[in-house]
Specification:
By secondary structure, this protein is α/β, with parallel strands linked by helices. It is about 30% helix and about 20% strand.
Length: about 130
């Protein structure tokens, strides 16, 4: 019997919910899903320039696990670029140390150390929890 999967630590949520090819209406696009931990692996390795070992440490996972997550993320992004698909960033097997919300009115990302009921920016109560 295998051991249970460890949840990956994701420290920074994406600023947006995804991407789509320019000039094509969303209703005509087939989406691919990029998981939050896949996004985090790309952010740490490519954007911050960390080694895979350093990124794995930050995500509290082993280096081979980080490599598998990173490879899957790259393949997902490549598929979206080559085949003209939308990328939705959602889901996965992760945990965070903060509360993440997206405001339904101003669409801004809200990150807080404690649970919130209203948007930091527009004081709307239409917050959607992302974690």
């Amino acid at each position: 019997m295998s051991r249970p999967k460890r949840k990956r630590l994701v420290n920074h949520p994406p600023l947006m919910d995804g991407f789509k090819p320019f000039g094509i209406p969303m209703k005509l696009l087939e989406p691919v899903i990029l998981l939050y931990e896949e996004y985090e692996s790309i952010r740490l390795c490519d954007y911050e320039g960390l080694t895979q070992e350093q990124a794995a440490e930050r995500m509290q996972i082993s280096r081979p696990t980080l490599t598998r997550i990173y490879d899957k993320a790259r393949k997902t992004i490549a598929k979206a670029f080559v085949e003209g698909k939308a990328i939705f960033i959602e889901g996965g097997d992760y945990h965070t140390e903060d509360f993440w919300y997206r405001c339904g009115d101003c669409l801004k990302l809200n990150i807080s150390k404690k649970a919130r009921k209203e948007c930091n920016y527009c004081q709307s109560e239409s917050l959607k929890s992302l974690n």
